[in-house]
């Protein structure tokens, strides 16, 4: 195996580092921040991403994560649109973001060198390798440098890149239990809450507003403090709120592989958070990249196969997530009313189908037990 530079030590970059280290690559991680770690609140991790992390040897997820309950949907008044029900579909686990990052970096061995406080400005490649900032050379570069990837811009200067969704997101941790998690959809704004394993609650909220307007906990309390219980109590038990304007990447996405350079995570496919799958997709990218590097006849073929596998999957997720956001952030009261009715009817149909599936399964179990 050879050498690889991973640019960016977010969840995508550190997972890639662990995955590549495991298949024998010498890995250097370059991170512009002076410390390694993650800020943020909770994060949903779907079973497919948990499976990748487990296969990479990341330990402790089970102990650090709480299984989400079935999602219920309410109106700001508290009226149910969709009651919580087991639809027989897979659910993610919830974990604190910093904890997840820590569990992954705990797997860094002697094959991984980390340089923090290192800002990547330029990248060039030739037949034998890639050069970063005219000083660091490696056989391959994995660009995990996020939504505003410098490397993606260098490779695809014409690409439009980030696209503002029209809404901002707030997140926080409340020192209170919220066993009845779920989402509340209003007009151009949403609020969601879920329980963490340590007894605290992770909440998130979205609101339509121009990019760059900012916002803080006081703004959150003004917007959602009058919504149904237990939202006021959750906000009262919160010290501070993170605020991020929500962007995704313009479609079609650019290729995830260019010669010896691969894009991974948000650098390749930043999506709105409506499916809670951006970091999970980055984790799955890392697993796929390592798999192709192990099985392909040469690294360039591996990167091409990685692009062929991952780009269509990520494109679908970017699209679906964008559509859910558009539905959730509807501003017109008439459209909001129609949306809520359709969601209620759709959920009843899904509940009916799930009950039927369960009934058929139990008949099958019964008849095979009797035979
Ligand atoms: C409100 C919100 C909620 C979310 N909830 C979920 C969720 O529940 N589940 C989920 O799966 N996803 C969720 N996501 C998405 C998830 O946060 C991202 O998809 C994920 O963090 C992307 O990881 P990444 O490693 O690709 O990029 P990033 O986390 O952006 O990491 C990029 C890293 O590169 C570094 N960097 C950037 N440029 C340079 C440079 N030039 N030189 C050196 N270093 C550089 C940065 O400092 C950073 O550390 C959410 C996103 C938001 C905004």
Summarize the structure in words.
Helix 1 runs parallel beside helix 9 (278-295). The strands form four sheets. Strands 6-5-14-15-16-13-17 form a seven-stranded mixed β-sheet, sandwiched between helices. 41% of the residues are buried. The chain has 371 residues and is of the alpha/beta class. The chain starts with a strand and ends with a helix. It contains eleven helices and 19 strands. The chain is globular and about 60 Å long. The protein folds into two domains: 3-67 and 97-163 and 249-328, FAD/NAD(P)-binding domain (3-Layer(bba) Sandwich), CATH 3.50.50; 164-247, D-Amino Acid Oxidase, Chain A, domain 2, CATH 3.30.9. The model has no long low-confidence stretch (mean pLDDT 94). The structure holds flavin-adenine dinucleotide. The site of flavin-adenine dinucleotide (FAD) has 32 residues, from helix 1, strand 2, strand 3, strand 13 and helix 8.
Strand content: 15-25%
Low-confidence stretches: none
Secondary structure: number of strands: 19
Bound molecules: flavin-adenine dinucleotide
What would you give as the CATH superfamily of the largest domain? FAD/NAD(P)-binding domain
H/I helix tally: 11
By helix and strand content, what is the structural category? alpha/beta
Helix content: 25-40%
CATH architecture of the largest domain: 3-Layer(bba) Sandwich
Structural shape: globular
CATH topology of the largest domain: FAD/NAD(P)-binding domain
């Amino acid at each position: 195996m050879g050498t690889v530079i991973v640019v960016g030590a977010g969840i995508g970059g550190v997972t890639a580092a662990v995955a590549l280290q495991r298949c024998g690559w010498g890995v250097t991680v370059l991170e512009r921040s002076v410390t390694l770690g993650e800020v943020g609140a909770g994060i949903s991790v779907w079973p497919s991403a948990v499976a990748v992390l487990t296969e990479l040897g990341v330990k402790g997820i089970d102990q650090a994560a709480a299984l989400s309950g079935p999602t219920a949907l309410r109106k700001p008044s508290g009226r149910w649109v969709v009651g919580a029900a087991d639809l027989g579909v897979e659910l993610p686990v919830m974990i604190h973001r910093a904890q997840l990052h820590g569990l992954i970096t705990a797997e860094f061995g002697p094959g991984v060198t980390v340089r923090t406080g290192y800002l990547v400005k330029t990248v060039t490649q030739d037949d034998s390798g890639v050069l970063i900032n005219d000083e660091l050379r490696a056989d391959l570069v994995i660009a995990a440098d996020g939504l505003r990837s410098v490397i993606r811009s260098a490779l695809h200067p014409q690409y439009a890149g980030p696209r503002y969704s029209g809404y901002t997101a707030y997140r926080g941790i409340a020192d209170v239990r919220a066993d009845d998690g779920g989402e509340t959809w209003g007009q151009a704004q949403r609020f969601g809450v879920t329980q963490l394993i340590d007894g605290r609650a992770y909440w998130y909220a979205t609101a339509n507003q121009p990019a760059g307007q900012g916002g803080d906990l006081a703004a959150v309390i003004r917007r959602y403090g009058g919504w149904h219980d237990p939202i006021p109590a959750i906000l009262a038990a919160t010290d501070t709120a993170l605020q991020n304007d929500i962007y995704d990447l313009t479609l079609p996405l650019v290729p995830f592989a260019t010669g010896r350079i691969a894009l991974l995570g948000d650098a390749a496919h930043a999506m709105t958070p409506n499916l809670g799958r951006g970091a999970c997709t980055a984790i799955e990218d890392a697993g796929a990249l390592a798999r192709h590097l192990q099985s392909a006849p040469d690294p360039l073929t591996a990167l091409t196969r990685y692009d062929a596998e991952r780009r269509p999957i990520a494109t679908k997720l970017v699209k679906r997530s964008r559509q859910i956001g558009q539905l959730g952030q509807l501003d017109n009261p008439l459209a909001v009313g129609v949306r809520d009715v359709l969601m209620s009817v759709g959920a009843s149909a899904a509940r009916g189908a799930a009950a039927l599936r369960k009934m058929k399964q139990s008949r099958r179990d019964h008849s095979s037990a009797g035979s």
